[in-house]
Each structure stands twice: as structure tokens, then as C-alpha cells.
Design brief:
5-stranded mixed β-sheet, about 15% strand, 4 helices, 5 strands, alpha+beta, single chain
């Protein structure tokens, strides 16, 4: 009788011990899995940050490359001009407007201007980036219409910039986030991004209006 009780006790003890070992094993396994998942999540987060940084750096490099051509246009134009006012910003605006007017006229696009002193402290590089991209986008929109009486109008006064251009009524830039079907869509998108970045940099506000066959962009600093 005593022997049987002893065997039963030992059996129960072994079962309980086995269950405890299994629970301890499962607990340790769960802890290891949780640690592994936490480490994986941390690693994924690190990779994500690195990827975003690389993407941002690459995007910034593309912005720089894109605007180098705009800066070069102004530099080339300066070599042809001998009459300067002495005000760097005003001279830069005049150069951009005249060069873009020349470009528009070569494409049979009417180009109207209304400019006065730009009373805002902005770097020469940003003035070129802002106005050149604005006008180039407007001229390109006019080109796509194929019309002979297409027009671009630009106003630059004090702290205000406004540009109105003809466009295809089928184009809905506000609905497509200013994307384009052009072969150089990526470059067009970069120009739009640069405009937005410059406006935000100087705490300005920008409003756009799609008027069927015309497009209007107003910027106030």
C-alpha cells in the first residue's frame, strides 16, 4: 500500500515537474520571440529612417540639378546685359521676365507683364527658382494647347506674384496634384515642388484656381 502511494506520488510529481518545464520553456520561447520581434521592429524602423533619408537626399539633389539650368539661364542672360539698376533682386526679376518673354514669343505665345519693385527680402537663387519655374510651367501649359492665340500674364508687385496662363480644359492640375502627361513629367513635378518649398521657406501663401481653359496661381509673402 505504501509502495503504491509512493509510486503515485512520484508519478504526480513527475507530471507536475514536466508541466512546469513545458511552461518555463514556452515562457522563455515567448520572451525570445517577443525580443526578436522587438529587435526586428527596431531594425525595420532604422531601415525605414535610412531609406527616407536617402530618398530625401536624392530628392534634394534632383532639386539642385533641376534648378541649375534655371540659374544658368540667368547667368547667360547677364552676359548680354550692360544696363543694371544696382538692385540685385530687381535686376534678377527683370532678367527672368525678359528671358521668359523671349522664350514665349519664340513659341508664338503672348506674354504680358506688370512688374514693380519686389519689396521682399529673398535670395537671388530663390527668386530664380520661384519665377523661372512658375513661368516655365505656364509656358509649357500654353504649348500643350496648340493654340495660336495662347497667352501668359504675370504680375510681380511688392510682396505679390500672380501668373495666369491658357491651358487645355481637359487638364485638371488641381485634381492630379499638378502632375502632367508630358515625357518630362518628373522634371515638371520637381519644378512644382521647388515653387512650394520656396513659398513655405518664406512663410508665404499660395492659392491656385482652375478656370477651365485658364489657370491662375497667386503667391503672397
Amino acid at each position: 500500500m505504501f509502495f503504491m502511494k509512493t509510486i503515485k506520488f512520484v508519478f504526480v510529481f513527475l507530471i507536475i515537474t514536466l508541466l512546469l518545464i513545458i511552461q518555463i520553456y514556452n515562457y522563455k520561447s515567448r520572451i525570445n520571440i517577443e525580443k526578436s520581434m522587438a529587435e526586428r521592429k527596431k531594425q525595420d524602423s532604422l531601415y525605414d529612417k535610412q531609406y527616407k533619408k536617402i530618398a530625401k537626399d536624392n530628392r534634394n539633389l534632383k532639386h539642385i540639378r533641376h534648378d541649375i539650368s534655371k540659374q544658368r539661364e540667368v547667368t547667360d542672360a547677364i552676359e548680354r546685359i550692360t544696363d543694371f539698376s544696382g538692385n540685385v533682386i530687381e535686376d534678377t526679376i527683370d532678367i527672368i521676365i525678359n528671358e521668359k518673354k523671349r522664350k514665349a514669343q519664340s513659341l508664338n505665345i503672348a506674354f504680358e507683364t506688370d512688374t514693380e519693385a519686389f519689396c521682399f527680402d529673398m535670395t537671388e537663387v530663390d527668386v530664380v527658382g520661384l519665377l523661372s519655374n512658375l513661368v516655365d510651367n505656364a509656358i509649357e501649359a500654353c504649348e500643350r494647347t496648340g493654340k495660336k492665340d495662347c497667352k501668359v500674364s504675370i504680375v510681380v508687385k511688392n510682396r505679390y506674384v500672380c501668373i495666369i496662363n491658357d491651358k487645355l480644359s481637359s487638364e485638371k492640375p488641381m485634381e492630379t496634384h499638378f502632375s502632367t502627361s508630358k515625357s518630362d513629367a518628373k522634371l515638371h513635378g520637381l519644378g512644382t515642388e521647388i515653387i512650394d518649398m520656396i513659398v513655405k521657406k518664406y512663410n508665404g501663401s499660395m492659392s491656385v484656381s482652375d478656370m477651365d481653359n485658364k489657370f491662375k496661381c497667386e503667391i503672397v509673402f
